[in-house]
Recover the amino acids of this structure.
């Protein structure tokens, strides 16, 4: 054991606070980027010529959902840590909560997707619904039997109701849990009451989380092609979400340590466990991704194969092959090393790499649909069906930088608000003296 | 007069608690002993570090065991499904690119071979099963599975000496120090 036994004398009695002035510059730049980018994006989403608006709607959806998965993952790790009665991660739990607390803000960036002006380029099924002269269901009965059959789930009032619930529900969950955790920091007589409360409330709210990650994926992404379905979809998005939010958590903890924080309460053992989780979810992602591919490939049903027909042909196929090796084989072999997971620096490099692969993953989820859907929806504007739309790539970058800057801003803001670890949590010493 | 010869196995010492055992282990490690072991009714976190144990070689066995399983399954599926008797389903080709169809078998045999290597590799490394252990000759050692914490230093350790080792054990808090002898 390299470090000595941590006792309550080593725990900062009023918490470990980040010096706000040290990173206010980064925060200001991030905020400026986000604000400027949002203004430009709103123009591109609503007022630009149609030829730009259509492709940019996909860019926005890609960037929005990418960062949403990171926030949802923060909620997941908070809930899981509470509900499993864990002690190991108490010293990094505040980082889980801070990451999760970006969820309400990230969800706000999905608001443009609630406007029919944007939806018309993304969701073909909504156009069919909106084109109905009278009763929608009766209309669908005549024009598209598949949509008629799916009407119970795919109808506009239910869609809006669901989306509002995904936004509000999980936001309330993470705000509540974070409040509970922070209230403990300054309590002069901290007891175990909040620990048990957090554990209890994390049980049923875990269901809200599961519904959110599954059905935001259904409503925002799977709905891009209403004919396509996959029962693996929710699990697939969850695997990527849990994996990459852990990557963000590792990066934040490593950065805080390099700034001289979390010194007494975290060590190689914590990074080792977080690295193991990163490794485990790398494998889990591959397992789910392959299972989804395998079942669709084996069954060979027309409606299902369309997803891989688009992505496993032409240039997109290069990306998909890169995903197999880059998202699974390479990190699998590298993350097997124990020493690498115990070193915050090397683990951070792997976390950055994992996040880069997550970008590729989500790019391949959303963007290949663009040229096909737009060609289907408005051939007179976008031309026929094509694998990709030239020049639309710049919009992807703009949307990614905009929402990414906002994500960074809200994450930094949350980190700077309160103590960096729950300093009066009953299990803080257990976590600080972790050995695995 | 007994005709059985006896051979010295080593010293056995009892310690009060898990933490006493832990601290004693650190001292024996630092004294440079190699042939010795700790006995406790339950696993103690970090004791491997306190004993100065190196990482086990077992993961390497398992890695190659798993690779062998993967290769075996691929060879089995490929030779039967592509070379010897191609099964054409839904007009899908039978060639190297149908490898996803073999993945479940490859996965399962990887796991199976890894599992076997874990089990048999572990048994080989810890030299189990065996019929007897010299320490069973000690009466007090029975408590190692109940409430006793023990350290045994073997006589075949190059640093072992009848007097100094006993003194060392006493010095670091060992009680009921006993010279365990095995029947030859």
């Amino acid at each position: 054991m390299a470090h000595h036994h941590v006792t309550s004398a080593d725990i900062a009695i009023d918490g470990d606070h980040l010096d706000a002035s040290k990173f206010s510059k980064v925060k200001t730049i991030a905020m400026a980027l986000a604000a400027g980018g949002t203004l430009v994006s709103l123009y591109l989403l609503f007022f630009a010529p149609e030829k730009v608006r259509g492709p940019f709607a996909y860019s926005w959806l890609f960037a929005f959902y990418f960062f949403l998965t990171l926030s949802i993952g923060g909620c997941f790790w908070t809930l899981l840590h509470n509900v499993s009665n864990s002690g190991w991660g108490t010293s990094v739990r505040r980082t889980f909560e801070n990451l999760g607390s970006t969820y309400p803000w990230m969800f706000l960036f999905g608001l443009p997707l609630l406007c029919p002006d944007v939806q018309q380029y993304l969701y073909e099924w909504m156009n069919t619904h909106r084109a109905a002269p009278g009763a929608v269901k009766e209309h669908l009965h005549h024009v598209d039997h598949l949509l008629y059959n799916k009407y119970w789930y795919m109808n506009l009032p239910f869609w809006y109701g669901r989306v509002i619930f995904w936004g509000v529900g999980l936001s309330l969950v993470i705000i509540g849990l974070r409040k509970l955790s922070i209230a403990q920091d300054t309590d002069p007589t901290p007891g175990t009451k909040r620990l048990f409360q957090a554990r209890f409330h994390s049980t049923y709210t875990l269901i809200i989380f599961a519904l959110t990650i599954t059905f935001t994926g259904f409503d925002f992404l799977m709905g891009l092609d209403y004919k396509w379905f996959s029962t693996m979809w929710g699990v697939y998005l969850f695997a990527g979400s849990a994996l990459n939010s852990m990557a963000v958590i590792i990066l934040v903890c490593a950065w805080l340590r390099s700034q001289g924080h979390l010194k007494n309460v975290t060590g190689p053992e914590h990074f080792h466990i977080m690295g193991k989780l990163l490794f485990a979810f790398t494998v889990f992602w591959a397992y789910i991704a392959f299972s989804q591919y395998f079942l669709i490939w084996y069954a060979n049903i027309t409606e299902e194969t369309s997803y891989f027909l688009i992505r496993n042909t032409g240039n997109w196929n290069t990306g998909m092959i890169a995903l197999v090796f880059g998202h699974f084989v390479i990190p699998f072999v590298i993350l097997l090393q124990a020493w690498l997971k115990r070193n915050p620096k090397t683990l951070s490099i792997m976390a950055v790499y994992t996040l880069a692969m997550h970008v590729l993953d989500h790019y391949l989820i959303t963007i290949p649909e663009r040229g096909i859907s737009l060609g289907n929806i408005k051939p007179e504007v976008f031309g026929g069906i094509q694998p990709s739309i030239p020049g639309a790539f710049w919009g992807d970058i703009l949307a990614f930088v905009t929402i990414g800057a906002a994500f960074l801003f809200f994450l930094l803001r949350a980190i700077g608000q309160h103590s960096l670890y729950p300093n009066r949590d009953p299990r803080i010493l257990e976590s600080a003296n972790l050995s695995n | 007069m007994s005709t059985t010869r006896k051979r010295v196995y080593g010293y056995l010492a009892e310690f009060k608690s898990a933490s006493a055992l832990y601290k004693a282990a650190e001292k024996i490690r630092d004294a440079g002993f190699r042939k010795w072991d700790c006995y406790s009714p339950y696993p103690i976190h970090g004791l491997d570090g306190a004993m100065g144990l190196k990482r086990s070689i077992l993961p390497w066995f398992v890695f190659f065991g798993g690779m062998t399983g993967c290769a075996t399954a691929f060879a089995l599926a490929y030779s039967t499904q592509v070379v010897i008797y191609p099964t054409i389903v839904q007009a899908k080709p039978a060639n190297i690119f149908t490898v996803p169809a073999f993945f479940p078998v490859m996965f399962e045999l990887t796991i199976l071979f890894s599992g076997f290597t874990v089990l048999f590799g572990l048994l080989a490394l810890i030299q189990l099963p065996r019929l007897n252990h010299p320490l069973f000759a000690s009466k007090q050692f029975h408590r190692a599975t109940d409430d006793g914490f023990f350290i045994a230093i073997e006589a075949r350790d190059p640093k072992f000496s009848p007097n100094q080792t006993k003194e060392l054990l006493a010095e670091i808090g060992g009680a009921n120090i006993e010279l365990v002898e095995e029947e030859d």
